[in-house]
What does this fold into?
Amino acid sequence: MDLTKKETLKHMKVLTEFHSAPGFESDLKAYIKNEMEPYADDFIYNRMGGFYAVKHSKNPNAKKVMVAAHMDEVGFMITHIADNGMIQFTNLGGVAADIWQGQRLKVKNRNNEIITGVVASIPKHFRTGNEGLPEIKDLMLDIGSASAAEVRARGIEIGDSIVPDTDFIQLSEQRFAGKAWDNRYGCLLAIEILKLFKDKQLDVELYVGANVQEEVGLRGARAAAEQIDPDVAFVVDCSPANDMKGAQQLSGQLGEGTLIRIKDGTMLLKPAFRDYLLELCNQHDIKHQYYISPGGTDGGEIHKANSGIPTAVIGVCARYIHSSDSVFDIRDYYAARQLLFESIQALDDKQIEHLQYS
It folds into this structure.
């Protein structure tokens, strides 16, 4: 089944512009499920909020393969509504505190309406030079309301979620910008990999879906892994690129292909799995690059679940993630999609046993 660039770009725009902070993933979940429905035999759900589409195998003894994205993006939660209508908030996920002043953010209120505001900043005219770096708790969102009563009349309350207000745009032929490519990349890949296998028979039972609350501590991954109990798992996630001043050692370069993540703060890639991925990259001429990260992915929880699950991250990198915008190269996405496709298609019982016990 062919996937057109136009179709991919349409999903990129819709997915990156979704409002889906940690713990508030339900609207995005409904969208992804709707897109997957024509290509899924079944769906399973866990009580954390994650869900997986299932593609059954005709093999009665089929091994289970899990493909895990996450639906949440870094964002904020309202903690205080001041008498003058200004809104204070706390972060959901890891963000730098000094990049938000003057930025537009959008609140999702209790009526599921989106309301945009601007984070307050001190104009140059009023600066003393002693302001120092801001903390998230000191930032204030201005939605144009003059009182707390006015804010609440617009359906906004403490506990509501906030994300950046950023449009998806094309910067050049191959490069794009938008918020939340971490990890709408994985959501897009989950949708498209299911479509690619629509007319193909697999020796494995395929579970493709997305977890919740990854950005606040990989919280949704364990429930999904324990429910599915896969024999092999692939995590699809986006990582930070550190190439603004040129190539930096194993820290991701735009346009250099999918990431072979050999080490991060939560997981080491098993040598057998590394060699399996590299062999497929070389066999199918898939552009790839080694990657090391101080952070982690849902793989950190998945690979430890039950009696241990061989897990690999098939990722891409993007600049400026965990901010109001990110820049990425669509060719890296295509490389990751092909590697995931080939990795699943090549699995059989012998290969899975090798990945599990070598």
Observations:
- The mean pLDDT is 96.
- The longest strand covers residues 311-318.
- Residues 181-196 form the longest helix (16 residues).
- The two ends are 34 Å apart (CA to CA).
